[in-house]
Write a structure and sequence with these properties.
The complex is a heterotrimer of chains A (255), B (256) and C (286).
Chain A (H helix, E strand, L loop, with lengths): L1 H16 L2 H18 L9 H33 L3 H5 L5 H33 L6 H25 L4 H15 L2 H9 L4 H13 L9 H5 L7 H28 L3
Helix pairs in contact in A: 1-5, 2-3, 2-5, 3-5, 3-6, 3-7, 5-6, 5-11, 6-7, 6-11, 8-9
Chain B lengths: L2 E14 L2 E14 L3 E5 L6 H8 L7 E6 L2 E2 L9 E4 L11 H11 L4 H14 L15 H13 L5 E5 L7 H16 L3 E6 L2 H7 L2 E6 L2 E7 H15 L7 H13 L1
Parallel strand pairs in B: 3-8, 3-9, 6-7, 7-8
Antiparallel strand pairs in B: 1-2, 1-4, 4-5, 9-10
Chain C lengths: L14 H22 L15 H6 L3 H17 L9 H7 L5 H13 L1 H20 L16 H10 L4 H14 L3 H14 L4 H14 L3 H12 L7 H17 L3 H14 L4 H14 L1
Helix pairs in contact in C: 3-7, 4-6, 5-6, 7-8, 8-9, 8-10, 9-10, 10-11, 11-12, 12-13, 13-14
The chains are: A mainly alpha (255), B alpha/beta (256), C mainly alpha (286).
């Protein structure tokens, strides 16, 4: 796994050198600042609105970072042919895939924690406090970033950068609707389609399990520990599956 | 003599879209310890495909390639192999020092040894002054030298060099040649693919000529050149033939 | 020699159909929530000055966004619980339902091993959803009702023709938060954007009537509401007429007030309260 860590560090180094993260950073901080300062009908101390908007922006921007950084890894290595000297070294293809996933996850998690830090400072300045549910929400979003990174890295073994970004972003947007959409569709379908949809329901990871934003905004008490543990296991299982598929595909790939 | 590289009945093919191309049609060759093996052939002959199979980038459809008693797909022998790709492909945002550190760590070289080795390989390729310059700011020739530096960072026993002179100016070519000869003198085995037959002629001990996925000749350089020259002298008494003449004649004879 | 290893740049014939399939799947999946999604009276009118065409090209993006923001007010009012409650899932899975129901499931499961396994998985997912999403309807604490206001404002910013947002927002501002001046300003903005929006005129009339006791202005806005060309529910009309009647009455125009109540009676002849009021005011007049 040392080799995977070396690859991960290179992903981080590459991301730091590129400008896009800084642009997204400025954009999200600007939106958060505007949201924090916005005034409606001379009302002060509107925490929920600020929390909702900030969490939404931070969630989307960090997912975009994970998708953009992750999707380009393999195609760029192949196009710029940097993969040749790299794969001539004692590096397993599985280590390469895991390293790319780890790097992508870490850079998006790092950005997320920085954004959340800024958000918490602004939140405290508005007289609010850091709740247990917020901590849980942060943890679940970290899991979500790791899961999305694994999906993106897996897809990068199958498709081009642009196609991967499109599919991944669409999946992220729709991933929160899948459970609801399928359960609604079940009433309107025949037996075979019901079976198909139910299978799809179990196969596709439900991203809404990683979204505590509504509970955070509306200041609900923390969710039970077993829920967090179950969702963590759920994420670990799916991450492993996607990394395995990505590795198997990459192992079969002729460089 | 023990072969360090042994290729037995190697077949390989690749696809571009739906089109399948048979790149290697049962090639056999051996490279022995301490020699410089020149692997020559026209464009599309199968040189890079052979190297790709040797390094495990491609799987053969039949036959096998063995390096240092291990199958080419094995990771064990990678610790003892150095590879220089045809053109420099390195992360432009890194510096020579950082990229060599990264590659060195993949070879599991400890930090102290790695630091001193980075300095020594950069000194060998003449890039010590550019140690901390981003790769994107290096000239093509400098990047090719860096390629050689990364190929020798692990002090390999076998070096696979794919067109090492590509992008080098005459001085660079001369320096590259000197470095390769010095490595051979240290007992390294060098598998050298090139178009530039004059370079091959100057440094190789043995050559293999490949065309359309088949090996046409594998012999010691002086033997090939000697045989042909003897024939020429017998027939016409003209001057000595160069490797280029021999190469062109061999390819034309086979294609005819 | 043909260069190998340009993987990312290779022609991949399956990429285009794959992307198309993904997009089609997305569209299909989106259809379901959108079919169940209740649009309000939002129109496709643009918030950009002179941007009608742009708005049409964008396919009502602004009004669609405004509708989503409008739903937020309901979500905020109920502590994050939306109409898409997951309780039905729980019942289906036998969680939180009646004990008898639960037993039925278990019994069924023992007969069909496969079904039991399936239900248990469903049950686990349902339990997760139940815990991860706001699950119990609870009204917003009165001290935090101000949290609703950004969503009213944003709804009307995205769709200035969202009459309900103006009317309801005006009510919350004036009567729940005590921001009468802000309410009038907001409602006047609504009238400017929706001259025929009788609900807004009515609401501003109520604010003048109840909060400021300015019956003359109240009378003006109630009359304006009644002149609206928009289709008006008879209950709404009766309500406006009642307010207008009292506005007249408090200004001393008892006959006008009686006339208004007679119109209410015309709409609802069985309304005993109206009969009583008319009788009382007739007596007072005499």
């Amino acid at each position: 796994m040392r080799a995977a860590w070396i690859i991960a560090k290179n992903v981080i180094e590459e991301s730091i050198r590129k400008k896009e993260i800084y642009v997204l950073f400025i954009l999200s901080v600007a939106i958060m600042a505007v949201a924090a300062m916005a005034s409606f009908f001379s009302l002060t101390g509107l925490v929920k609105y600020f929390t909702e908007l900030s969490f939404l922006i931070v969630t989307y921007i960090t997912v975009i970072i994970a998708v953009v950084v992750g999707a380009r890894q393999l195609p760029t290595e192949l196009n710029s042919r940097t993969i040749y000297p790299l794969m001539a070294k004692p590096l397993k293809r599985s280590e390469f895939i895991i390293g790319k996933w780890l790097g992508t996850s870490l850079i998006s998690i790092f950005c997320f924690l920085v954004f959340e830090g800024i958000f918490i400072i602004l939140l405290l300045s508005k007289g609010s406090s850091v709740s247990g549910i917020l901590i849980q929400g942060i943890f679940l979003h970290i899991l979500q970033l790791m899961l999305i990174s694994s999906i993106v890295i897996c897809l990068s073994a199958f498709m081009t950068n642009a196609a991967n970004v499109t599919v991944s972003i669409l999946y992220f947007i729709l991933g929160h609707w899948i459970g609801k959409a399928i359960s609604d569709a079940l009433d309107k379908c025949g037996a075979f389609l019901v079976w198909m949809l139910k299978s799809l329901n179990y196969i596709i990871p439900h991203l809404d399990y990683f979204d505590l934003s509504k509970k955070i905004v509306h200041q609900w008490p923390p969710v039970p520990a077993w829920v967090i543990i179950t969702v963590t296991i759920y994420a670990v299982v799916y991450i492993s599956i996607f990394l395995l598929i990505g590795t198997l595909k990459f192992q079969r790939k002729q460089l | 003599m023990e072969p360090v590289i042994e290729i037995k009945n190697l077949h390989a093919e690749y696809r571009v879209g739906r089109e399948k191309t048979v790149a290697l049609k049962g090639i056999n060759l051996r490279a022995y310890k301490g020699e410089i093996f020149g692997f020559i052939g026209p464009n599309g002959a199968g040189k890079t495909t052979t190297i790709n199979v040797l390094l495990g980038f491609m799987r053969p459809t039949n036959g096998e390639a063995i390096i240092l008693d291990e199958k080419s797909s094995s990771l064990k022998n990678r610790f003892r192999i150095g590879y220089l790709p045809e053109t420099a492909y390195y992360y432009p945002y890194l510096t020579p020092s950082k990229i060599l550190t990264m590659y060195g760590k993949l070879f599991r070289i400890d930090k102290i040894t790695l630091n001193s080795r980075i300095d020594s390989v950069l000194a060998i390729v003449g890039l010590m002054g550019k140690k901390n310059t981003p790769i994107r700011n290096l000239s093509k020739g400098m990047q090719q030298r860096l390629g050689l530096a990364q190929a020798i960072i692990n002090d390999p026993d076998v070096m696979i060099l794919d067109e090492p002179n590509s992008g080098l100016d005459p001085i660079g070519k001369r320096e590259m040649r000197d470095i390769i000869l010095e490595l051979r003198n240290k007992g390294k085995t060098i598998f050298f693919s090139s178009h530039e037959l004059s370079e091959v002629e100057l440094i190789c001990d043995r050559v293999g000529i490949i065309d359309r996925g088949q090996i046409l000749k594998t012999e010691k350089l002086d033997q090939i050149v000697g045989k042909i020259n003897t024939k020429n002298q017998d027939k016409s008494g003209s001057g000595r033939a160069s490797l280029e003449d021999i190469f062109v004649r061999t390819i034309k004879d086979k294609r005819a | 020699m043909k260069k190998l290893g340009t993987g990312g740049g290779k022609h991949r014939p399956y990429n285009v159909p794959l992307c198309l399939c993904a997009l089609l799947l997305c569209v299909l999946l989106l259809q379901i929530p959108l079919q169940t999604y209740h649009y309000s009276e939002a129109s496709s009118v643009s918030v950009i000055p002179g941007g009608e065409i742009i708005s049409k090209i964008l396919g009502g993006v602004f009004s669609g966004s405004a509708d989503l923001l409008w739903l937020k007010t309901d979500e905020y009012l109920h502590k994050g619980v939306t109409e898409h409650s997951h309780c039905h899932i729980l019942e289906e899975a036998g969680i939180g339902g009646h004990t008898q129901h639960k037993h039925e499931h278990e019994h069924k499961g023992t007969e069909h091993g496969h079904e039991l396994k399936h239900n248990r998985l469903d049950k686990l997912f349902a339990k997760l959803e139940y815990n991860l999403k706001p699950n119990i309807t609870e009204h917003l604490h009165s001290k935090r009702e101000d949290e609703l206001m950004p969503w009213f404002k944003l709804t009307t910013t995205f769709n200035p023709h969202h009459v309900r947002a103006y009317a309801v927002g005006g009510y919350w501002l004036a009567f729940r938060l005590g921001k009468t001046e802000e309410a009038i300003k907001f409602l006047k903005e609504g009238i400017k954007n929706n001259p025929d929006g009788y609900q807004i005129s009515t609401q501003i009339g109520i604010v003048y009537f109840s909060r400021l006791k300015d019956y003359k202005k109240a009378q003006y806005y109630f009359e304006k509401a009644l002149k609206s060309q928009a289709e008006m529910d008879e209950y709404d009309k009766a309500g406006i007429l009642r307010f207008l009647a009292f506005s007249y009455k408090f200004q001393g125009h008892t006959q006008k007030a009686i006339d208004c109540y007679k119109q209410v009676l015309g709409l609802f002849p069985e309304n005993k309260k109206a009969v009583q009021i008319i009788a009382r005011w007739e007596q007072e007049k005499d």
